[in-house]
Amino acid sequence: MAGPVAALINEFSKLPTVGPKTAARLVFYLLNRPRHEAQSLAEAILRVKDRVRFCSVCHCLTESDPCDLCTDPDRDAATICVVAEAKDVYAIERTGAFKGRYHVLGGLISPMDGIGPAQLHVKELVERIGQQSPHELIIATNPNAEGEATALYLSRLLQPLGTKVTRLAYGLPIGGDLDYADEVTLAKALEGRTTL
Ligand SMILES: [Zn+2]
Predict the structure, then answer these.
(1) Distance, CA 144 to ligand 1 centroid (Å)?
(2) Is residue 196 predicted with pLDDT exceeding 90?
(3) I need a labelling partner for 99 at 20 to 30 A (CA). Which of 38, 87, 157, 166 fits?
(4) Which of 103, 55, 93, 99 is nearest to 73 (CA)?
């Protein structure tokens, strides 16, 4: 099949989690919507590509440099949350539970993929700690092999600098059932128990 419909289905199919069926549904949905809706979608995509860049302080995505998170006076500069990717900042922001600053590493240590500390924004983090001497660094990397290796590496590197280094707790999902939790999660939750 050729033509503009097939071309757009093909473009949508390249997006993560979108298969050919969903891509076709999106295209037929758009065909039934007014032109201005398609235009705002197209413009929003281009705006992201043209205007969004990385903050020179925290390496999060931003339109202005430094970003709003780095310049907001209501956010606590003494607490820095270290995450792997910019999308993790959005995940933590959605909780509304953190009012500090961030540092995006730009990935995780993964020797198999040839990614070491030099490929990540680790040097910048050390420089930032030297300049701002924060009270606490919260390592918020994923609880998988790469996330653990990165957290361990960072704690060894940063603890001598005199900053308290903490790690997100491992736990059971809220509303979950002990019966259904896997052994590793349950063992970690037991290890990371807190006083009531
Ligand atoms: Zn920033």
Answers:
(1) 26
(2) no
(3) 157
(4) 99
Domain shared by 11 and 79, yes or no: no
70 Cα–ligand 1 center, Å: 4
Distance 128 CA to ligand 1 centre (A): 12
Count other C-beta atoms under 10 Å from residue 69's C-beta: 17
124-166 pLDDT, tens digit each: 999 999 999 999 999 999 988 999 999 999 999 998 888 899 9
Predicted local confidence at residue 191, as pLDDT? 85
66 CA → ligand 1 middle, Å: 5
Asked if residue 84 and residue 162 are part of one domain, the reply reads yes
Distance from the alpha carbon of residue 174 to the mean position of ligand 1, in angstroms = 31
Widest Cα–Cα separation across the chain: 64
Angstrom distance (rounded) from CA 194 to CA 44: 45
Residue 28 C-alpha to ligand 1 middle, in angstroms?
39
Give the list of residues 6+ apart from residue 55 with CB closer than 8 angstroms, or none.
61, 62, 65, 66, 67, 69, 70
Q: Are 116 and 155 in the same domain?
A: yes
Residues 79 and 117 reside in one and the same domain: yes
How far does residue 57's CA lie from ligand 1's centre (Å)? 5
Q: Show the domain range for 14.
A: 4-51
User: Tens digit of pLDDT for each residue in 20-60?
Assistant: 999 999 999 999 999 999 999 999 999 999 999 999 999 99
